[in-house]
Amino acid sequence: MHKPSGVLMRYSNIKYKLSKNALIMFVGINPHPGSYKRKVPFSNNKMFWYLLSRAHIIEEPTEYLMNDKKLVQMYEGKFVQEYRLNFINLVDRPTSDVSKLRKGEERPGAARVFDSIRIYKPRLVCFIGKITYEKFSGSKHTDYGYKQPIYGISTYVCRFPIRGPAIDRIKELKALIKAARGIDARARV
Question: Quick one: residue 46, left, alpha or beta (phi over 0 = left, psi -120 to 50 = alpha)?
Answer without folding.
Answer: alpha
